[in-house]
């Protein structure tokens, strides 16, 4: 198929309405280096860690860039943190796993065909107490020191501890804003402590950047080690492919993306095209693309970039750590995450759980996974009391990035929900679009997936499960600008069987002073 023909004709109509009114340590001994923020051992054992010293950094030589600067300082690294792949669900207390793999191996599945998990050497990390880690992470926020200026790599010791900073491919992703949804909370839910974590305010416009920086960095390392990786590939509903192609392009690594034809937004489609990926538009849905990429990556030297690959989740889990950090290490009562392939809900669990295990906080939030009713295999599984899981054929949904019927991380999601006293909710098309309309009317510009998460919040609030004063975080997973067609359809009031209660179409007015004044006066009277 010619590249141009895969741009299916998108209907962009926003008809003006007739002029009516618009509606309403005995821990280790260490010290932070003010210039490098690396950890140095001090000679005195058993002394508590001092706080980081905050001094201004000397300007680096003019012919040195930030990566060179990091390389120069790298010699001071003395820590011994490590991580490896183990079968997902392997006993965390077992010090010697019978099956484990180096992260430098190319492996996505355990011997039994199950999922893998990245297991950190927790004993090594536990040699430093919670205060140490909190101070270390806090000392790195918002800086340009390579690679710690990234919200992911500011937690490098917990992510990929052994990678050389030189191999990291980063766009300084993460550090996304935690928005106090004051008006939405007050007006629609009577809540005063409602927050939206805008993970879509990111390099490629979705939370996928958090995982992709980790995966592509590891690929960069593998290629330098002459491992057989010619390119990196994924199946995608649009966001994974955008992130993969951007990070690969930044590193000069070929990327290959399998997209379900005519099922992703035009803004998402153009991202890998612009970033030079090899784009296959395939006549199937996401689950069909996922099946194909799994078969292809088993045959060809293409590294798999979907979240089946547990490396991705190491980056994504930093969003959870970041939320705690943004709350000055206070733990929210609830965190609500939209779910599709279901890697992210586990990533959040893992981030929160690590913070608890390493003493940064003393509990974890309750997690809610929100699905579109048109693509709800996890919801059905939950409602059946976690009886046997049955994949489904996912139907079309405005939340197109989560139109997934056979999620690869189902076991991870179930684990996360069971261990966080979690809940699964669902949203109909009308509910998710209305929630998006409501949120946008209070100054946000969210994607339909965030509308799914907000619907879950509305339902749990209305049923009294979530209390008005509960500190609640809704995870916004992509930028609304990637999904403008859904908003155009909604505000045009042209969606079949949908009332579009919060539609706000433009008013068409004749180009004369009197007509404009008439319309404005009526409008102002309605607001007075
Ligand atoms: C915008 C958006 N939100 C939510 C999700 C769901 O994340 P996960 O697949 O990790 O459940 C995805 C991808 O699946 C996505 O692209
Ligand atoms: N929404 C995803 C679907 C694939 O999820 P992944 O996390 O397994 O890559 C996308 O944007 O492609």
Automatic annotation (TrEMBL):
Residues 32-44 have a biased composition (Polar residues). Its EC number is 4.2.3.1. This is threonine synthase. It comes from Ficus carica. It is found in: Plastid, Chloroplast. Coiled coil: none annotated. Residues 1-64 are annotated as: Disordered. The keyword Plastid applies. GO terms for cellular component: chloroplast. Pfam families: PALP (PF00291). Belongs to the threonine synthase family. CDD domains: Thr-synth_1. GO terms for biological process: threonine biosynthetic process. One of its GO terms (molecular function) is threonine synthase activity. The keyword Chloroplast applies. Homodimer. The modification N6-(pyridoxal phosphate)lysine is found at residue 208. Residues 170-477 form the Tryptophan synthase beta chain-like PALP domain. It comes from the Eukaryota. Catalyzes the gamma-elimination of phosphate from L-phosphohomoserine and the beta-addition of water to produce L-threonine.
